[in-house]
Amino acid sequence: MPHRDEHRQHPRQPAPRGVALTLRPEHDGAADQEALHLLCRDLSRTGLGVSFPQPISPDTDVELWVYLPEQSGAPLHLFGTVAWCAAPLGQWRAGIALDLERGDGGVWEARFAPGTPP
């Protein structure tokens, strides 16, 4: 049986040290919800693998602020959708599919252009 990584659109790479994520569900009243601070496990041109402190439903639209260690200034403001959420080994993990047409999606995508260091 093929491993699920073989079906990814874009290769995943480990998250660089120091990447920090803040996430909030994107919907009416989201500004009232407390943001979650997440551990980024891996990333690709079109998505992020994260660890969550609690479950989040697949198909939840989210806003993300990504602080990259090599980037000074404001974090990247991204949008995406939770693709899956599970708790293997007792820790919640999720995959977030990014919407590169919104926010800083173009800046994020450019980080993965051929010849760009990870």
From TrEMBL:
Transmembrane segments: none annotated. This is PilZ domain-containing protein. Pfam families: PilZ (PF07238). InterPro entries: PilZ_domain. Residues 1-22 are annotated as: Disordered. It comes from the Bacteria. GO terms for molecular function: cyclic-di-GMP binding. Gene3D superfamilies: predicted glycosyltransferase like domains. Residues 7-99 form the PilZ domain.
